[in-house]
């Protein structure tokens, strides 16, 4: 029987989801915990890779197990997992759907705070920039869905068979005093480092170091930057993964970093 596990994790102390040699990863921890609990080797196939220190408010992986799970299994597995990884629910599936290839969209949010705040350490990226032009950043963001080739927004474009991504939605939000900023982007897939490279370029637009036209020129491939610059990892969150057969709201209590004090909360730019 195939199961989908719906989890969330704080990735600050991990080198991403994907299991790697000699480093601490979420997949390695999860697979060992599930293998011990089920008393058999258990492969946990994730819905995608995440970079080191990147978080997931919603993440799915699938695994196979021939028996029905004990009703107390989630409680027991959460007791065994470290505090920065939580299993929200486990769903038995019909057939053999794949957590990675079956997803039709993924949404990421990237958080920035512009004033030093010890309570956001590891949860948001600090960029002490007080005069970001949010309107110009929004104009640049709105160009993104018009393009599909993100080779110039990929850390390792030559390692991929193709760098085509269909971006369906981009949004920019700010707190009432603009001391916190949130980028949101939804696409069918993403290439390595894509969102963090986009965010870094948008910050350059907001600082007046890059024009909206030049940002679109990079998107179109007419302008090829001499170097790839990338935003910090800890502000990035995978927040939603959608399947044609499974669409679960993100866990409301896990993402306290999303909360903004004030009467209006996040305001769309």
Fold topology:
Elements: E1 2-9, H1 26-38, E2 45-46, E3 55-64, H2 73-80, E4 85-93, E5 105-113, E6 125-126, H3 134-141, E7 167-174, E8 180-187, H4 194-206, H5 212-220, E9 236-242, E10 267-268
Parallel strand pairs: 3-9, 5-6
Antiparallel strand pairs: 1-3, 1-4, 2-3, 5-8, 5-9, 7-8, 7-10
Helix pairs in contact: 3-4, 3-5
Based on the model shown, name its key terms:
about 270 residues, alpha+beta, Alpha-Beta Plaits, 2 domains, 5 helices
Domains counted in the coordinates: how many?
2
Percent in helix: 10-25%
Largest sheet: 10 strands, mixed
What is the oligomeric state here?
Answer: single chain
The total strand number stands at: 10
Going by CATH, what is the homologous superfamily of the largest domain?
Answer: Pseudouridine synthase I, catalytic domain, C-terminal subdomain
CATH class call of the largest domain: Alpha Beta
Unreliable residue runs: none
Radius of gyration (CA) equals 19 Å
Q: What proportion of the residues form beta strands (DSSP E)?
A: 15-25%
In short:
This protein is of the alpha+beta class. The chain has five helices and ten strands.
Descriptive overview:
- By secondary structure, the chain is an alpha+beta fold.
- It has 5 helices and 10 strands; from the N terminus they run E-H-E-E-H-E-E-E-H-E-E-H-H-E-E.
- It has helices spanning 26-38, 73-80, 134-141, 194-206, 212-220, and strands at residues 2-9, 45-46, 55-64, 85-93, 105-113, 125-126, 167-174, 180-187, 236-242, 267-268.
- Strands 1, 2, 3, 4, 5, 6, 7, 8, 9 and 10 form a 10-stranded mixed beta sheet that branches.
- Strand 2 (45-46) and strand 3 form a beta hairpin.
- Helix 3 packs across helix 4 and helix 3 runs parallel beside helix 5 (212-220).
- The N and C termini lie far apart (46 Å).
